[in-house]
Amino acid sequence: MTSAVSIPRTGGSGGHTAVAARARQVVKAYGSGETRVVALDHVDVDIARGQFTAIMGPSGSGKSTLMHCLAGLDTVSSGQIYIDETEITGLKDKKLTQLRRDRIGFIFQAFNLLPTLNALENITLPMDIAGRKPDRAWLDRVVETVGLGGRLKHRPNQLSGGQQQRVAVARALAARPEIIFGDEPTGNLDSRAGAEVLGFLRRSVDDLGQTIVMVTHDPVAASYANRVLYLADGRIVDEMHNPTADQVLDRMKHFDARGRVS
Amino acid sequence: MTVLKTSLRNFFAHKGRMALSAIAVLLSVAFVCGTLVFTDTTNSTFDKLFAATSPDVTVSPKNALKGGDVQKTRTPPTLPASRVEQLKKLPGVTHSVGQTDSTSVTVVDRNDERVGPSNGGPTITTNWKETEQRISKVVSGHIPRGPTEAMVDSDTADKKHLKLGDDLRLIAIPGDFHVKIVGITEFQVTNPGAAIVYLTDATMQQRVIGVRNAYTSIALTAKPGVSNEQLKKTVIAEMGPGFKVQTKAELVDESRDQIGSFLDIMKYAMLGFAGIAVLVGIFLIVNTFSMLVAQRTREIGLMRAIGSSRMQINGSVLIEALLLGVVGSVLGVLGGIGLAVGLMKIMAGAGLELDTSELTVKPATPIVGLSIGIVVTVISAYIPARRAGKVSPMAALRESGMPADAKSGRIRGAIGVLLTAAGAAALVMAAGADKAADGSAFLGLGVLLTLIGFIVIGPLLAGFVVRALAAVVLRIFGPVGRMAERNALRNPRRTGATGSALMIGLALVACLSVVGSSMVASASDELDKSVGADFIIAGEQGNLIQPKIAERLAAVPGLDHVTHFKEAGDTRITTPDGKTTTTDRVVASNPTFADDLRTPTVSGKLVDSYGEGAMSVNEGFAKDHKVKMGDTLTVAFQHGRSAKLKVAAITSDDTAFNKGAMYINITTLERYVPADQIPMNTMMFASAKDGQESAAYAALKKELKHDPQIQVKDQTDYKEMMKDQIGGLLNLIYGLLALAIIVAILGVVNTLALSVVERTREIGLMRAIGLSRRQMRRMIRLESVVIALFGALLGLGLGMAWGITAQKLLALEGLKTLDIPWPTIIIVFIGSAVVGLVAALAPAFRAGRMNILKAIATD
Description:
The structure holds two protein chains of two kinds.
Chain A lengths: L2 E2 L14 E12 L6 E12 L3 E5 L6 H8 L7 E6 L2 E2 L5 H11 E4 L11 H12 L5 H11 L14 H14 L4 E5 L7 H18 L3 E4 L3 H4 L4 E6 L2 E7 L3 H17 L1
Parallel strand pairs in A: 1-3, 4-9, 4-10, 7-8, 8-9
Antiparallel strand pairs in A: 2-3, 2-5, 5-6, 10-11
Helix pairs in contact in A: 3-5, 4-5, 5-6
Chain B lengths: L1 H12 L1 H39 L3 E5 L17 E2 L1 H7 L4 E7 L1 E2 L3 E3 L14 E5 L8 E6 L7 E5 H6 L7 E5 L4 E12 L7 E5 L1 H9 L4 E2 L1 E6 L5 H12 L3 E5 H48 L1 H9 L4 H40 L14 H26 L20 H23 L3 H39 L3 H13 L1 H39 L4 E5 L7 H8 L4 E9 L3 E4 L5 E4 L2 E4 L3 H4 L4 E4 L9 E5 H6 L7 E5 L5 E10 L10 E4 H7 L10 E6 L4 H11 L6 E5 H44 L1 H9 L4 H38 L11 H28 L2 H6 L2
Parallel strand pairs in B: 6-11, 8-10, 19-24, 21-23
Antiparallel strand pairs in B: 1-13, 1-14, 2-12, 3-13, 4-6, 5-9, 7-10, 8-11, 9-10, 15-25, 15-26, 16-19, 16-25, 17-18, 17-22, 20-23, 22-23
Helix pairs in contact in B: 1-9, 2-7, 2-9, 2-10, 2-20, 7-10, 7-14, 7-20, 9-10, 11-12, 11-22, 12-13, 12-14, 12-22, 13-22, 14-20, 14-22, 20-22, 20-23, 22-23
């Protein structure tokens, strides 16, 4: 199974299509000839709007590469990627930058914040860059939801790891992107701080209707998602809806075992 | 061994980052070595020339002119021709040859263009003699045989396109005469820039010197086996006292002294500028190593964790510095030799021609170059090395490679403020000083302390200044501007050091521009205030005005009066207190001088000193020798008799022109000095009849059309000339300071390049969340501009403070008007912003090109 295309093309809210992003026959290969390594092998995937999607898989499965390609951070070798109805494969850097700025939000595993800016400035940074005024009410709501009210004037090095990640989430949300990509956003956090951030991501999907795609290898993190895609050797091998942590763990064990056998 | 290995690996791993530091070392060392090689080559060229042109023993009159002296009187001291024969008969002499030389002849071609060098080098006219063949070979034509024949050297002939048969006019003191070129000679040693015209014995004596059968000196050649010293003794025994007898060595020394002081000034000035560049380079090296150490914090922590000692870490950084020093210095020494060759080419244009095949590299040159480069680099790296040694093993475990914001310490701030305050106090003292000597000590101290103070509080100032600049300049750039501001502020120590490097050069520029423009303004003001004459006439390069020309000028129509101005030369004055002082400040002129140059007096009127048997003395002399109005002084004139003169006026010392001069009437001088020993006019003043100013000016210019060595200027042109002269000098100094500024710019580039590397992840993050390449580049550029403007603001502020203090101090010496050259200051400030933009080009491009994913993934 290399395809995870199972969502109707229309529907959902706000006049947008129900699919926030899609990949069609995406191949990502490094090197050439003997040393050619295929990170993504003809992947088809649809990301549902207003849903929390987790991408899982063992190290080297291509899950981060898939996310980077979907988010327009990395280029593909062949195939197409669309954000909403815009094909981003083949876009020039300028357009791509604009797209990331205006339509996509990011949360990285670490180093999400500029050390020179305080929490609030970091949150509004994408809009500042774009020269847009943040929507005050929305910003207040985001800040309130993230629970950082008293710490907005703090610099990142005055915040704990969990607080820093929450600022990163707030930044991703504040610009109201169509889709937020998270690259192991809780990878560096302890379980309590991790749970805080994940709960918050979940709420932003439920309450704010946000679309989120998150790469993780943590079954607990994946259990917050509506849908989990499993990647192995550059292919989508399975998917699961509304899973629990235990189900995810079982599935992972299964893949691991199969991986060892084959 | 491991330490050495890691040092080597690090050095080569970061060779790109080391490159700019290496260039800084290279430039400084190259400048030092270039200066040394150039001056050594110049010296050795002149030594060879003097050795070749100096006879074994030279006999001249006691008060003979030295090689470069300008002839001030109508006739120079001479020896009768009979002396030549007398000396020829002496045992130990093979040749005894009479010489007549003059450097006071202006030689022009048919178009009245000067044939001799117009700057620096002398034009020597001399008699052709057989012994001359040793140094000068006739390459075409023949030697001069008659009164209208001349031979010129091939360099001059080439430069001025002279050929056989061309007509030359020689403007000599007794009068002009024409000659035809009949021969061309080639010098057998390098002639660095003198033009030589050979004439016959008789022509030289009669037309140039104005005597018959006499020589200005006699050249003796010693027989083999007779030493020059022995011959000198024999000559002295034969001729008795009253003559100047010099061996070859003595004459070479005398000649070298004449140009040596000029070469020394040039050498030390250039070494001074090289020193400034070295100082600026130190900042660059300190910054580079600080940043490299900061970037390697985790790595160093790991080394410490697995058991490296502090000493080892410290040592490994120093070894890297040593490598950098060696590489930079070796290249610098080589570059210095290249620079010396370049300097020779440049100087050839300025009239000092050297032969690159005679390039003199003394062993001291590479030794000095290498030691400066290596010692400076290692010392500069010492502080960062020590900091590296202090990195705790814990650093290895800490998340993120970002160095913590360096907090500029309070102690540092306090010391800096203290130093600056002390420096400012010294400057205030200097400005208020009564005596120039005390004041200049204070000024020096003040400059040094404020400079060090500013360097020490640089990081603190960076905070204020960058914020202020950001508020003005960066606001308009929105968030990109804000981020640039934050980046410039995140490590104040680094910004401080980078800015300080630029500050040093710009402070000097600002200071000199203030002093220079105050000089022009003061002189103009003084000119307006004291010069009553419409026209000022003077010779170029210290040329005096030939009596015939003076006569012609006096006869120009439309003039109300003409004032002759003669310096009486060394004069011995015996004051009533019985003491005798020798001074060269006695000036003889016409009574109209009092109107032409209004000299303030403390008692009496200047015009009274032009009465019969009268003179004026200056305030300082009067005070020192307790001379009062009406006192009678005994004045013994050079080449003349003694006079008893009454003090009829005491002039104020508070004047810019001719400070300390003592005035007498020319008629007084003429009474006591024989006519042929009356000095020629140093300058002349003239005023037109009312309403005829422009006609008279044109007439004067026309009269001097055929005498390019003499210039007439009205007040406007004279001011313009002063401005040009000072401007030219300033430009030369700015050119030399450019070196220090270039090193400082390298520093800015280096700081930015390293911080771009350091902020790889940030750059990746910003690009990921939507900062465009263009915005990224703009951000880096703005940061650079802010750092450059910070340096400029500090430098210009400091430099202007120095310049104003210097003006206040020099007000005692006549620098009365303060003039701050705002256009220059503003241009420098704007120029700094441009420099900032240029410095950021490469780093900004690099930041823009950075691959987002790699940037995020970097540890």
